[in-house]
Amino acid sequence: MFLKKKKIVDEVIEKLYRSPDLTRRRIERNGQKISLLFLKNLVNPTQLQQSVLQSIQNIELPLTAATIAKTIPIGQVHICQDVDIITAHLIEGWVYVCVEQEQNGVLLNVSEKVERSLEKAETESLVFGPKISFTESLSTNIRILRNNVNDEQLVTEEMIIGKRNKLPVRIVYIQDIADPDNVQTVKQRLSELDVDDVTDSSVLAQMLDDHSFSIFPQYLMTELPDRLSYSLLKGRIGILVDRSPTVIICPTTFFSFFETTEDIYLRWTMSTVLRVMRMLGILTSIFLSPIYVAVITYHYELIPSDLLLTIGESRSRVPFPPVLEALLLEFMIELLREAGARLPTKVGQTMGIVGGIVLGQAAVDAGFTSNLLIIIVSLSALGSFTAPSYEMGTAIRILRFPIIILAAMWGLIGIIIGICVLIVHLLKLTSLGRPYLSPIYPFRFADLKYSLVRLPQQFYYKRPISNRVQNKYRFSWKDSKKRKDLDE
Predict the structure, then answer these.
(1) What is the mean pLDDT of each run of 10 residues along the chain (488 residues)?
(2) Which of 176, 190, 250, 435 is deepest in the core (most CB within 10 A)?
């Protein structure tokens, strides 16, 4: 049922009557009455004055919705008569122009977006490569992405999620590379979300998880455009969320969280060494403290006699069992890390360094802990910081606590039990339905160069098999014999 324009304007005003910034402007030209509705805090006043109001004054009579839509120099124009759609657009900063006795009105986008300028990434620091990061503006992020991937096959599909706070989301992928099943899975999961609001891309990633009770992140979050473009060219899919500076990349694997884009810019030998160091750092972070607790509690025979005397002297004044001593120090390190992360940057750095030194020395002098455990816990903390992903680093730090308890209960056998449970859990995990431990399980030798090691560039002529890409080859060899040899 069509309503007169006056009634539509009144209905919109009634729906937004609690908004004191709702403004109604009336213009009359030779007996024709024109009404404009907008929220004054959301529109660009200069664009409203110059592009809308002045253009209306210059339009030849008689005025109609179609004439206004064709004449006014605004990029986004929409002819509409639905009250709900009009209200939703006004909240986004549009202006509604209606002519009396016209069934249709015109929505014009004159919104003034609140966004920061392009800056360096805060959570992913780089020495080599582009330093630019995504911002909270979806349109800006799409523009950055298209500057990085100027491929006509790049697809950016828009979806709206959230019932009350509607949030634009873009699914980005390269059509002739990405697996259609992966794309369809992403679309289906997004369309099935029945929520009032999604505040950030990290919240959306949790809603899309395959296994919501797992401690491990199943989607990669990044602020770096070059990392997204590199992932798209490998057959993965990106999800950009308005008002969020981080992008979701899927499907992903466990080893993806230990890669950095800097690995691409460094020579392959350096990148391989750095990747191995990161993996060793993570293993050290998880198992060094539990091994100390297991050996001191149950397996003295594994310690060399000279070192045993040193450990005995260091622990002679400690009144606590090794497990309580280790848990106390690990908890203290986590408190320092959390406090340093929440304080302003300069204060947090100072507090972390001074607090660690002062508390560590005071704990040793007071007999609460030994010097050796201070060193071990510090190495464990450093090892966890080698993970480029903040989410994965946090998961690694949390894993230490149950394994320390297992080590205190059953010694090295308890640690082995913890390792077995951890491996079984990782084997069961999936990301967007794809194996989380690929290319280790299922084993794909050709994909090891994309995860554990780096090789010279000529070995990367094929995209990862794990992503089930449509177009397998990044570039072709002229020498077919050389390609055959590499495939073998």
Answers:
(1) 57 82 83 85 86 81 81 85 86 87 84 75 76 86 90 90 88 93 94 89 92 92 91 93 92 90 88 90 92 89 81 79 88 80 66 67 74 86 86 90 93 94 94 91 87 85 85 67 50
(2) 250
For 179, the token pair is: 């697996």
